[in-house]
Amino acid sequence: MTSTPPIGATVPGYPRIGPGRELKRALESYWSGASGRDELDAAARAERERTWRRLSALGLDSVPSNTFSLYDQVLDAVVLTGAVPPRFASLGLDALGTYFAMARGTGGVAPLELTKWFDTNYHYLVPEIGPATRFHLDATKPVHEYREALALGVETRPVLPGPTSLLLLSKPVDGAPDGFRPIDRLDDLLAVYALLLTTLAAEGVAWVQLDEPAYVADRTPDELDALRRAYERLGGLTERPAILVSSYFGSLGDALPVLASSPVEAIGLDLVAGSLPPEDVPGLAAKTVVAGVVDGRNVWRTDLDAALATLRAVEARAAAVAVGTSCSLLHVPYDLDAEAALDPQLRSWLAFADQKVAEVVTLAAALRGEDRSAAFEEARAALADRAAAPRVVDDGVRARLAGLTPGDARRGPYAERAAAQRERLGLPPLPTTTIGSFPQTGDIRRIRAAFRAGRLDRAEYTARMRAEIERVIRLQEKLGLDVLVHGEPERNDMVQYFAEHLHGFVTTEHGWVQSYGSRCVRPPILYGDVSRPAPITVEWATYAQSLTDRPVKGMLTGPVTILAWSFVRDDQPLGDTARQVALAIRDETVDLEAAGVGIVQVDEPALRELLPLRSRDQAEYLDWSVSAFRLATSGVADATQVHTHLCYSEFGDVVAAIDGLDADVTSIEAARSRMEIVADVAASGFGRGIGPGVYDIHSPRVPGADEVEALLRRALDAIPADRLWVNPDCGLKTRTYEQVEPALAALVEAAWRVR
Hints:
Layout: H1 22-32, H2 37-58, E1 63-65, H3 73-80, H4 86-89, H5 95-104, E2 114-116, E3 123-125, E4 128-129, H6 140-151, E5 156-161, H7 163-168, E6 171-172, H8 186-202, E7 207-211, H9 221-235, E8 242-246, H10 255-260, E9 266-270, E10 288-294, H11 304-315, E11 320-325, H12 344-347, H13 353-367, H14 373-388, H15 395-402, H16 414-425, H17 442-452, H18 458-479, H19 496-499, E12 503-506, E13 513-516, E14 519-521, E15 525-531, H20 538-546, E16 553-557, H21 559-564, E17 567-568, H22 574-594, E18 599-603, H23 618-633, E19 641-646, H24 655-660, E20 665-668, H25 677-684, E21 689-692, H26 705-716, H27 737-754
Parallel strand pairs: 1-5, 4-6, 5-7, 7-8, 8-9, 9-10, 10-11, 15-17, 16-18, 18-19, 19-20, 20-21
Antiparallel strand pairs: 2-3, 12-15, 13-14
GO molecular function: 5-methyltetrahydropteroyltriglutamate-homocysteine S-methyltransferase activity; zinc ion binding
GO biological process, one term: methionine biosynthetic process
Binding site for 5-methyltetrahydropteroyltri-L-glutamate: 21-24, 116, 121, 519-520, 565, 609
């Protein structure tokens, strides 16, 4: 190795979907057959070039590359390491076809499992590793992107998942021997990473970033030893770039001294979700620390004075300090300047990705002793204005919270509720239903857009929404579903829709964030005390119920999910904010019941997502999150059936909390993981209704009745028939009617067979 340039100001990653969702449109056009490979490649190249030029122009000293992805960075690592499962490799597709088959499935081949990326709302594809997985290097993507940036005059730092985190985030391939763990294959994978580093060195790469976020969670001594072995081997290579091992979403804990004593050059620390390292970490004084002092996951402006003080403290512990964001900026929108319609006062409190890069550059300059007093003064003024703003505090909301009693979060015994609900609803065994939303067609989106733009008056908008609701009700009756939904045509997003109707929130016009693949969301911004000024869903739910004699569920989003999928205020405990949201949802459940709705579903797909990564922090979270849900749902009578829905997650370690929600029926993601969850449910003694999903809606594949029946019978091995519900994994809004109708027909047929 030769001497390497200092890192200076940098970020671990940057958004990649495009400021106007250009990549989303290119992907969906390609998948539909409306455009070809050349058009997709051109759109991807344009987004990469835009990113590198933008980050250089904003003043970063070290610009990342290989952060772009056509779908997911972990899937890219599967291709990089050759760990493509045989069922995809045997399809005979070209490289891109195989890549998208792993992401989305094809024909009779199910895709890789999709789950949450740590405690974020991003989803990654789970690698499948077995004893026979044949690793081999395919460095095409990182090398090509490094060369592509270099041709633009931008020297970059390739970013890749680290080898130990890649294996710790993987699952054993089906049929692997008992006791096999993907981390058992570390030595074989390290041979690929060693060749990768040698290849990058030959390209002239000065720095490479290997991400090891798995180590901000609890890890066993064996897993810590795997980290030590990995970086002793990779750091000991004679021909390699300088190595930055980056972590995010918390503190490294016991993993920090392991990395500090290894022969790597730099360590990236999240000093927003995590804390300052101890002063006496052996080996840290010889390293560069990339200090993540600017929050990469939330949109509030940085307290530059506090961040600079943290940087000064890190200087006393390390050989050199670089400045960065706490994690990749993938989790925030591109540019606040695009939000021209946002209230100016609120806007002054915020920073999106480009503004956060500017904060990083400002802090790096101040750390070097340059005068940045104007930027610091502007930040101080914005922080002071936010702290004093009357719009942030609602005394009525706070008084209502102060008056709550333990009884406000309790319902009657489940056995009594179940008897009352059986008498009221009269449902058959294995009742069939869906999770809530039906496909959001182009016509529906155009109607909503016309109404927002004032081209359609409220009467006409209501008439068209009602026509769509009636169409969805008639379709469900035709398919034979037992419990119906109104389809949610009026909702753009399950969190944004409620945020638009609650005080304390504001929404953006262009604040898109990638959720997975081409799926994007616009998280609302929760800036103040929350209340519900008027009913939100009652009109639509009661109209749908008037059309049919079958039960129609009222559909609401739960308080934890509203928090998880929003940018939430950071000036009070999260549990306090959750209880405010819970009271607003409680008001809606009570109004739905009063209007004659017999089933109310309060979805909490993010319950597992927000679980702290360290076990020591989990009990407090589970206490307030479960309490918030129960507060939201305990205002209704025993005969009103409360459902909830959870998805995208590993549930084994929160089954007790799911039980604590005390919902009458809980539906969960299970199809892609082939009913793995039911064993945990059975072992926990869970005693209420449960609907493990039998149709994976995140893939365009349409399951047949035989496939659904097999999943149902597997579920019945663990769940008694009188408590088993039959439903898809999630809402159907991202699918088409051509996919949904045959899939739901198969679901109903399978339920009839098993009955």
